[in-house]
Design goal:
globular; 7 strands; seven-stranded mixed beta sheet; 8 helices; alpha+beta
């Protein structure tokens, strides 16, 4: 269902690390905005009315897809999800990328699963780097005042 993301997407995400440096005083939303590589994610969070939630006390762990990850979805997918009539589906997808609590990379173990805010479970695989379902973590442990962000290279979708 997803096209492979080219290596430049990973390089771009890694380059965003510099923008994250020292942002632990900013919340998850402001940290993502400041990075400059999450415009689609931020727009989706706004369309889903989740900004106040992700600016809340938390803590939250967000597996944040880059703009390139959203661009790799089939054509028209993002535009469809941003329509008001598809808000419930958008909320489900976005909250599937969020785990309650602050989960650092050192807290992960191979083949563990974690319950998401959406209600589904994600699976962590450490055999070939760090994988969250079928997405690779390209940058980890980006501190925010109310949690942590791990950058991923694909949008992960909950089971229907």
């Amino acid at each position: 269902m997803f096209r492979k993301i080219v290596l430049t997407a990973a390089a771009t995400a890694v380059a965003a690390t510099a923008a994250f440096a020292g942002n632990s005083s900013k919340d998850i939303v402001d940290t993502a905005v400041g990075a400059g590589n999450f415009g689609t994610l931020v727009a989706a969070v706004q369309a889903a009315d989740l900004v106040d939630v992700l600016k809340g006390d938390g803590p939250f762990t967000v597996f944040a897809p880059t703009d390139a990850a959203f661009a790799a979805l089939p054509e028209g997918t993002v535009e469809n999800l941003l329509k008001p009539e598809n808000k419930d589906q958008l909320v489900a997808i976005l909250t599937y990328h969020v785990v309650p609590g602050k989960v650092m990379s050192t807290d992960l173990s191979d083949d563990m699963s974690a319950a998401t805010v959406q209600g589904g479970e994600i699976t962590i695989d450490l055999d070939n780097g760090v994988m969250i379902n079928d997405a690779s973590v390209v940058d980890a442990d980006i501190a925010a005042s109310n949690g942590v962000i791990h950058v991923i290279d694909k949008v992960i979708l909950p089971s229907s």
